[in-house]
Design brief:
This protein is mainly α. The chain contains ten helices and no strands. It has one domain (60-227). The chain has helices spanning 2-6, 9-26, 31-53, 66-89, 92-97, 107-111, 116-150, 164-176, 181-198, 202-222. The longest helix has 35 residues, at 116-150.
Length: 228
């Protein structure tokens, strides 16, 4: 089974992400405490899958550039500030009702404020969202889906290609995967632009990691658990 996956350019990009999404969907099926332990298991599974497919994905290499840092910070500011902007525009209530996933993720609420387990799961979430989620999502959305929409023979499509249909469709699907769907769509635009500009995946992985880490710090610092 492993050799079949790693031997297919399509499967090696799709299967880890698909498994991660299925595990995410199962996260709330084991009680309130179970969702945190399941997040830990999902994160470890994601790390194992990334390690397994690493030799077969030449583009899955972290790259640091000033554009990646700027995009990562800018997307965080947009994500954290979007609710404030929507309040001022009068759309906050309707947007809140259209969020695509369930209740917010707050370990302090379940394990007790300041409890060791609460901080443990906060650390797991920070590390998972900053180190595991970016390569899993960027490989699927930017290396596979964007190029596949442009042309089924996706490996023949340059990472630097710009085309409106895959740009809009990929970003919309990326947004739909997130609780804050509107911010997710804008986020998809930014990361896809970065891949096209740099003609490689690593800068988007770095920007994605910066955004997720800063957002996680913001969530914990401000108690803005609605973002989790």
């Amino acid at each position: 089974m492993i050799s079949k996956i790693t031997g297919s350019p399509l499967l090696v990009r799709v299967v880890p992400f698909a498994v991660f999404i299925v595990l995410t969907a199962c996260q709330g099926q084991f009680g309130e405490a179970g969702r945190y332990w399941f997040y830990l298991a999902k994160t470890l599974a994601g790390a194992a899958m990334l390690w397994a497919v690493r030799p077969f994905l030449a583009e899955m290499k972290w790259k640091i550039s000033w554009e990646a840092v700027v995009v990562g910070v800018a997307v965080f500011i947009m994500w954290a500030g979007l609710d404030v902007a929507l309040v001022k525009l009068g759309f906050a209530d309707s947007y809140s009702k259209m969020k695509l996933t369930g209740t917010a993720w707050n370990p302090h609420e379940h394990f007790g404020d300041g409890a060791a387990l609460a901080w443990f799961f906060i650390a797991v979430r920070l590390l998972g969202s900053a180190l595991i989620v970016p390569p899993l999502e960027e490989v699927f959305f930017r290396s596979f889906l964007y190029r596949y929409i442009a042309k089924p023979d996706f490996q023949s499509v340059s990472l630097g290609l710009f085309a409106w249909t895959p740009f809009l469709v990929t970003s919309a699907i990326f947004g739909a995967e997130h609780r804050e769907w509107l911010a997710g769509i804008f986020c998809g635009f930014a990361y896809q632009w970065l891949v096209i500009r740099k003609q490689r995946l690593g800068d988007a992985m770095t920007a994605h990691a910066i955004t997720n880490f800063l957002l996680g710090v913001w969530v914990v610092w401000k108690g803005a658990w609605q973002f989790w």
